[in-house]
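the two lines:
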Amino acid sequence: MANKLIVAPAPHVQSSQSTPRIMRDVVIALVPALLVSTVVFGWSVLFVTALSVLSCVGFEYLIQRFMVGGKPTVGNWSAVVTGVLLAFNLPASIPWWIVVMGAFVAIAIAKMTFGGLGKNPFNPALVGRVFLLIAYPVQMTTFPEVEGLDALSGATPLAAVKQGALSAGSLNMQDLLLGNMPGSLGEVAALALLAGFVYLLWRKVITWHIPVTILCTMAIFAFAVAWSRGAEGSAMWQFPLFHILAGGAVLGAVFMATDYSTSPMTVRGSVIFAVGIGLITMCIRLWGSYPEGMSFAVLIMNSTVPLINKYVKPKRFGVN
Amino acid sequence: MGGVHPSENKLSCGKAIEVLPLPDVVMIPLAQHIGAPAVAKVAKGDKVLTGQIIAEAGSFMSANIHSPVSGTVTAVDMQPNGQGVRQMMITIQREGDEWAEGIDRSETLVKECTLSAEEIIAKIKDAGIVGMGGATFPTHVKLSVPPGKKADALIINGVECEPYLTSDHRTMLEHGEELVVGVSILMKAIGVDRAFIGIENNKPDAIAHLSKIVKEYHGVEVVPLKVRYPQGGEKQLIAAVTGRQVPPPPALPIDVGAVVCNASTTYAVYQAVQKNKPLIERVVTITGKGVKEPRNLLTRMGAPVQSLIDAAGGLPADAGKVINGGPMMGRAMINLSSPVTKGCSGITIMSGRDAGRREASQCIKCAKCVAACPMGLEPYFLSKMAQKKNWDELEAQMITSCIECGCCQSTCPSYLPLLDWVRLGKQTVMGIIRQRAAAAAPKK
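prediction for all of em together
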């Protein structure tokens, strides 16, 4: 026979998606926020991001090459995603060696120790960030000042409101939407992050369930708190809106909580996971000692994922 | 729930059914249906007529087989099938085309059917009709509703959700009247007063054509369905049409009152009951991106697959895979001189570039397989448990519900062979269940 025929069991069709394509799409979805951040904080944003990406990719390559063995995995772009996300969680003014240290914790400890992509129980970028937040609290909470927002003098809106220096209603929501506020370099531009969210939905990288559930849970919770505190009129909606737009809510909901290997496998499980993140975030923000609780909330809920996967099963066909 | 959207690639949907010239030699496997193989009733040297019975059903769960041509039996022996597995086949050298007596070959539409339900089912059994959508379940078995159960709806499967294939589509368009008469005959056979013809919305011409015809028939309704693979899976179709979900195995469609019959099979039922014509020919789609002339060919059973490929312009130079069926559930072939059988709705030819499996990487837990599974299973987990030979866990996670539609594997961005493992697990678990049942049964 002239032709050699391939024989394999069905299906004979494979996905047009691939792991590298999915990871590249996540990077593309993060670009708008990166650009806004560069406009707000200056060129140091690009330096921190590039350093973080290079460190993450470098550590993964070295660990794979010299410790784990096997085929190199850096080609799947997942270390790039971790690098960008870690950078997005750092202040633009952070010293370079702290960035490298964060990248080491994220990749070496949180990811490769567990077997690499798909096996890590906790979001690597957030493990890196939380490690740095605890180890270097001063550097991690010193944010460059932003023009036109002198009242904040370098404190994030969440911190300022928590300390009572400001009320949520006194902030210009437009500034929050466009990223005109102090904060970690990737968390400030809610609108740019939402554009990335739309891109990820269009490319079928993630579904809407986790991000929308987290943000809705936070909004409803904030609304209930505002109501119980006797808020009236515009304060009723300003408080929930402030909590969604300020800090890392959108970044966490869209890009952190949706990390494949650290989120549940079923839609029902994802909703439980997302409600948990929303509630824990709000509790830390309102009554905890940190002004922001998104990172902790995601990590805490990450730890419940194996349990959720074990007990929350999809609706089986034909079973009531 | 679940499902995927593979590219439809219905290249041959606008091509009218054409008749493939009669093959010079045909090979007829005795096992071309689910159940016991048929028992050969001819021997080397026998003369046979077109439509004459040459093998009889080996048990209730089996089907008769008729000669698709007239001529001389030259061998009854083991021959390799499409997958290279040797099985018993009857080889007939064709001489002319002389038909057995009593078969009405005219095109005249015969609407009236005065037979009783038992007589209809007996005629269908005599004609050797089996499900022509690919599953090849003997139709008379499906129509014999077991005591204590009751059918209340007949569902005709005109979904044809497999990419590329168009044989049901063309049959519905070109033999709509006969098909609907077939529906009314089947309704009588199982004693129901309503029937639904499910058709995916990507075939608006077939929907319009049959909708017009069914107006004259009481209780028959065309149901347009969302385009989503595997909409034509039996359980998915029943759920889409009636809203009822068939419980997990061993439950059957009849447990929710449904009997499902494929569109081409329904046309064959018309021919058997009204025209006394046994199942000796069928429409086969010959298709593929590299195929010069994708066509729908009315083919006698037993014709070599190669003759269909030649009729479509020959095997393309870049051909890498020839599939008996469509790309989602079809079986890859290694032997192109093997014959067309009752379950062969199409031959899909893929280029070497599209056909090869890409290198698998690690699972990234994207959950796309879970979202795609139309049965609500977790393919990533079943695959892992099958690799670990954890049969108890597989049974608990309902692996026997898997319909092997391939959605999981075709949606996996890491190109993992999920269904390979799930199939292995499912077969093993079903074996364990059978053994357990045999051990529990009282000894004779």
